[in-house]
Amino acid sequence: MKIKIFAFALGLFLCINVISAQTGDLLIKNATVLTVTKGTRENTDIWVQNGKISRIDRNIPAPKGVRVIDATGMYVMPGIIDAHSHIAIDAVNEATAPNTAEVNVGDALDPLDVSIYRALAGGTTISHAMHGSANAIGGQCQTIKHRYGTTDPAQLRMEGAPRTIKFALGENPMRVHGEGNKISPNTRMGVEQIFRKAFSAAQLYMKAWDDYKKGLTKVAPAYNLRMETIADILKGNIIIHCHSYRADEILMLMNVLRDYGINKICFQHVNEGFKVAPELAKFGATASVFADWWAYKFEVYYSTAYNAAILTRNGVVTSINSDSGELIRHLYHEAAKTQRYGDLTDDEALALITINPAIQLGIDKRVGSIEVGKDADFAIFNNHPLSIYAVPQMTIVDGIVRFDIKNDPEDIRVDIDPKEKYATYYEDLRNHEYYGCMSGVMELFMEESYASYLRYIYSKNHTH
Amino acid sequence: MSDIRILNDNHSFSRWIRSLLLMPAVFLSLAMAGQNSDEPAELSRVFFLKNCTVVRQPGVTLSGQSVIIRNGLIEDVGPNLKIPFNAQVVDTDSMFVYAGFIDAFSNTGIAKPEQKERPKVQDPDNPPMDVAGITPQIMAADLYKPNDKSVGEMRAAGFTMSHVAPRGLMLPGRSALMSLGEGEADRMVVRKSVAQTGQFASTRGVYPSTVIAVIAKFRELFRNAANAGAHEELYKTNPAGINRPEYSKEVLALYPLTKKQESMYFIAPKVKDLHRALALRDELGFNMILAEVKQGWTLMDRIQKTNTPVLLSVELPDEDKKADKKDKKEEAKPEEVKKEEKEEKKEKEAESKDAKSPEQESFDTKKAQALKEYVSQAAEFEKKGIAFGFSFLDVKPGDIKKNIRRMMDHGLSEKAALSALTTYPAALLGVASSAGTIEKGKLANLVITDKSYFDEKSVVRYVFVDGRKYEYNDKAKKKSEDTKQDNVKSIAGKWSYEVEVPGQSSAGTMRVSKEAGNYKILVANENEPSKEREATDVSVEGNKLSFRLEVDMNNFPLKLDFNLTMDTKNFSGSVSVGQFGSFPVKGELIDGPDMKL
Fold this sequence. Notes:
Chain A has 464 residues and is an alpha/beta fold. Chain A has 13 helices and 16 strands.
């Protein structure tokens, strides 16, 4: 058995090597470099080799044959990281059960989604492609790099990023399963029991397999991918990202996790996080919030634009996310709002969309700041990115220029259906519903005509 | 006595079918009568194909050849053969003889499932296996219907064997290799069980409802199949101290796949399907053949490196209509041209409003490029040195040659095209020693065309399946005769019809009209002249008219398929009534097309 596991791991390792992504060499000259973690450096050059930052200094001589980007008068910041989005995936919600831990949106990555390019046009180089919030325990998520241009889904995967999974509290799982399917959870109490049941069952499942491996039983237990996944959470191999709004529920989930010895958790949306900021900090939970977005359903009325600042000042690692194919294009505006509401410093505000989401996704050793040895992911702006006059000029992923405002083709799609009658901007109208947490859910419970009407409404108003 | 009275009293067509159901004896005799009339006049099972050009295998063409067929096999092939005394001589002078084409993957002969209401599922997370689309235990050979329309159509297109997959969702079942002859389904089986089939397809509302759940389910089933198989084997050797294995026909059907004793044909048309399918294969480790590939040019390296067998789709996106129109205009009648010009003018007006839009311009350029890529796929594979076959899930049999010719216009060689139709599938399906080329001792599966098959104007004249001859009319000749008669006018109008059944007949009227380029057919029985039923699937080809009529008898739905040969004043043909067989039908023109419908 052990040999098998080793062979399997080796196989995975080999796979990763085979599909290693395209990387580039670059020299960025004479920029104002916002490192986020190591201060701001004027008139500075960044040398990139094989997609990694190899030197940050003044007057680096241009190596032969390497592309030089003159960034005089421009600002270079780490590529923006969005800890909550639903772009570039072909399925968001497997809404058929309150627990679908085994599904993984990483299996349905869509490299052809033009939203990736739009995100790049807003300086966003990494996003956390998430399962939706229809189920208390949704599916696993995938951290992706915006390597737009490829047709191979595996190229989007951020190799080596830790596994993450979507949980959801409150109205969404109650509405889908309680109201929709007339099963538990129909109340917030029921949601808690979904977690407790899943963790307890997974403990028994792990024991059954341990007994088999020890030779105490002769026949292998039935293999259950759902249980396997929950077991991996119990073992600490998966970071939970939980859709949440109300303070009482946030405390509830921390209590549940404490009971099962789980400590890797990032609360998503967490609009009432400001009420329980010390508790979050004490638990070691992190928070990913909107700058100023609320009141789209009953449980999201008690909110404040000071949320990010309060959480930050209480020592909670906080990020600002998009949860939208549109907001993902101007997260730098969203971060700047925390200076109006909460007086965060430049570095604190920028950390909300760089190093902090990197910590929440477990990729902060690789990205999130401009430091030697880190991935060469940058967003280059004509003004300071927290200025309202900032316009992204160039976005770089692994040393490859993936967006350049001076070379922005009319039609950037990777895949064209020769049968399709209309161009991109029409397609967008059709696809926009995919980018909300509840996409693909409500039509499960109603007539098709009404469902298509609802899809239209969803495309106009996001629901989170 | 009373039985006869029922027959005589009820002239309604639907009524007598119901009475058929009630009377096994009558039904039996009818069915037998039907079978007898279907039997072709086969004088001898020895044929002599005289003075033809034989394409022995892709790239080897010999003229001045003869072929002797005896009892289903090729007895001899070569120049100067002696005509056996009892042979039917087939006049194949100057015609081209090819090994019968082999369809490497399709749903030929597998009826589309009835549109059923979605079953009420108690627990959407745990639906019955068949509702979830997990039916790997199903055998296509058991579902195959030799009299399905698709079988005749594929045969007419030159195909003599089909590798047939069941229809379904993620795991539709096991495929079979079938001979495309006529007769009982079991007698058509070449290989009862070829491989498993798979695809990323799901249904709404129950698990797995999305592609992510399909993939997760796949992983779990695969692991459990391996475990269940091992459990079963362990239990067989010594059951002491071991729980009895829980039997699951679905899970156990996948065990040979996990042991690589069986392969899986995976339907993966688009680029994302292809990457996902190959990722799943690499992760779980089983043998996969890619089928119905439409966007394979982006992963040729991956396919080549891993030696993955590949079947390219013969379905192609349509050419740009504007380009087509220009070609057709030369042949079209003056009034049609006028009409088209008007339409074009309208289109141009609509276009001119945003004609300057750079987005639209860029879109059109890219679209043209994309179309070219789809049509050039086969040529690219050939250039790259990857052998391939064809699959036929999405293409209409009538379009096969046209589409292969389009691939050839974009660089595919005749040799590679023919090998994709013959030797590649023969080898893939394990029948290379009996089919795929023309050799002594191989099956007498042949397709004979008046010119080279790949010529634009070639027509299939004969198809031999297991040594049985199927003859096809020279459509080109017929067509010119038909156009003289103006077949449009000759079909439209009010017709009488009479279905002949021994001891019983049914009559009524049939109104044919042409609206917006489509034929509309309304049929009424003489007992209920006011109740007209509209026919579906209307198709007119030359003087052949076929359509389907769906009738409902006390909630028992019946499909009546009419196949008629139309003349100016009368018609004849047959109507087939599902499993009850086929009956002759004839009729006369009552009123011309000018009458107001």
